[in-house]
């Protein structure tokens, strides 16, 4: 049995899988919002221990634990740096070593989006294809590439589809640049825009729905509910997001001539098949080879893709 | 010895190379502007015969001849279709077979931009790198990808960097779509824009320079001369072209995290080192990992890159 942990900005998902990638134990807990890397590492260890217990084993008995993480991941060195959504995490931290010591087994780390893409390729919606782009539409928009059956990481940082430019001199992105796809389509950027326009007097139910749901930010569920209610601002911002995603994905397809797009992430999975169909239709006018568009599929592993892909980092 | 032919929209470049890729014979002739595929194939055969004679041999004695071609190239079938810049060439034509019969040796075909990129990777500016994007800035803007030492062709049509979108809902491209990089940076699109603005009364020396040079279109040399004279419209359109190229290339780098960009093509080679430096500098603000930008190099093989890469299609 192996362990797999998906470290997200808001929650930690830990699982234990058997040799057939079946989940035999799991645990979930919130990501510490304060403190520092050691607090996060302690929470990772607790979540994995709990998942192991649920599987009737201990972490020491696991063949290994894989961790999918945001930030600048150096898989070889076992370090993570610049994890912007985690508390006080800038310099490289030897997570592999520290977490391994706490769990009593070897730990391998990888980029969260890359491992989730690999999981969809091996176990999920990407199985029929040899080349695909995973598009994870959530707080930001991450991308993962499989080319001819192999992960493509470039010099280690490939896949930043959210920072492909869809409009020269366009909207300011949370990354500080202008015109990035994520400036229009990332949930964080969308919330900033919605707040600014609401404060200037534009009517919207978004923040009322947020409060009703007991949230302090615009989650995927909040956006979905507002769209259901045909909230004008929400519809406008979601339309804009689709436009940006389709433009960037079409550009990626024109460059790489991929077989398939797999759409995941909080918003991607929430809007599901409707989003995949819309992406396929709206992408078409931008495709240079429009007689042979790529397949567009919804991620099948949902919330578990990241943890399943992480578990693959330690075999088989 | 092997033969290599670069089939361009305006000229045919044929060479004969030895086992060290040294050019031992060459010939050049204009691409037929009228007639049909058989006229083009006859001209290809004549050019290759003449190059063989210059090398002191015959085409029958060559180990094979490679052809780099525009259009929809099916290397396996040996056919070329949809070659928009060649006369009356839409349906697939069995060029490999017909040219082989005329030359008395086997013929392999490939996409013109792909073979030129491969030549730069093996013999030219790309030698130090394992992953690169070739950007061929001419009538259109073509792209070729080498990933981890291998050509990446996708399902056969990868590399359309000229049709990455740099501005949603932007300028109309000769391909019929909107906001493509080539709509701003392709020489053909630039000439259409220059003519339209000149006809509306904008002053420019571009067309006077064109006439002085005895040309009927705005060649790279015409653009270079106009820039030298600080012609306002020419400077504006070239600035716009750089902006579009840098935006698309930066998006490609954010997606693929490449080691290097190799800039070729008529305009790319004409502006040379200055263009490479400008591309590197203007790309920087768009790069997500701006602490590790890719190298930007000028293509070293110049006008012979296409023919040298074509000759590689038949070994060694």
Polypeptide structure, described:
2 copies of one chain form a homodimer. By secondary structure, chain A is α/β, with parallel strands linked by helices. Chain A folds into 2 domains: 2-116 and 304-312, Nucleotidyltransferase, domain 5, CATH 3.30.420.40; 127-300, Nucleotidyltransferase, domain 5 (2-Layer Sandwich). In chain A, 39% of the residues lie in helices and 20% in strands. Chain A contains 10 helices and 12 strands. Chain A has helices spanning 37-54, 95-103, 112-123, 182-185, 187-199, 206-212, 220-228, 232-256, 265-283, 305-312; strands at 2-7, 11-17, 23-30, 65-69, 72-74, 79-81, 107-111, 132-137, 141-147, 150-152, 260-264, 295-298. In chain A, strands 3-2-1-4-7 form a 5-stranded mixed beta sheet, with helices on both faces. A 5-stranded mixed beta sheet of chain A has the order 10-9-8-11-12. The first copy, chain A, has a two-stranded antiparallel sheet with strand order 5-6. In chain A, α1 (37-54) packs across α2 (95-103), α3 packs across α10 and α6 packs across α7. Chain A is globular. The termini of chain A are close together. The mean pLDDT of chain A is 95. The interface between A and B is large, with 42 and 42 residues.
């Amino acid at each position: 049995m192996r362990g797999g942990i998906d470290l997200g900005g808001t929650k930690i998902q830990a699982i234990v899988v058997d040799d057939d990638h079946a989940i035999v134990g799991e645990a979930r807990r919130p990501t510490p919002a304060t403190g520092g890397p050691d607090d996060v590492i302690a929470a990772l260890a607790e979540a994995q221990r709990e998942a192991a217990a649920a599987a009737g084993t201990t972490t020491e008995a696991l063949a290994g634990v894989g961790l999918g993480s945001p930030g600048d991941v150096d898989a070889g060195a076992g370090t993570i740096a610049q994890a912007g959504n985690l508390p006080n995490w800038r310099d490289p931290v030897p997570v592999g070593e520290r977490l391994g010591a706490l769990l009593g087994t070897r730990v391998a780390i990888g980029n969260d989006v890359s491992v989730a893409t690999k999981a969809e390729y091996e176990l999920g919606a990407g199985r029929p294809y040899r080349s695909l782009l995973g598009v994870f539409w959530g707080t930001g928009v991450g991308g993962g590439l499989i080319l001819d059956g192999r992960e493509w990481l470039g010099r280690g940082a490939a896949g930043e589809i959210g920072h492909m430019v869809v409009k020269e001199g366009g909207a300011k992105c949370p990354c500080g640049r202008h015109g990035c796809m994520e400036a229009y389509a990332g949930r964080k950027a969308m919330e900033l825009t919605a707040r600014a326009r609401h404060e200037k007097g534009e009517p919207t139910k978004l923040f009322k729905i947020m409060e009703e749901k007991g949230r302090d930010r615009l989650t995927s569920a909040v956006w979905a509910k507002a769209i259901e209610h045909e909230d004008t601002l929400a519809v406008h911002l979601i339309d804009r997001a689709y436009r940006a995603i389709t433009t960037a994905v079409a550009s990626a397809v024109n460059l790489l001539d991929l077989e398939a797009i797999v759409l995941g992430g909080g918003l991607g999975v929430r809007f599901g098949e409707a989003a995949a169909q819309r992406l396929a239709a709206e992408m078409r006018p931008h495709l240079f080879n429009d007689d042979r568009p790529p397949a567009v599929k919804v991620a099948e592993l949902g919330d578990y893709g990241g943890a399943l892909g992480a578990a693959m980092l330690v075999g088989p």
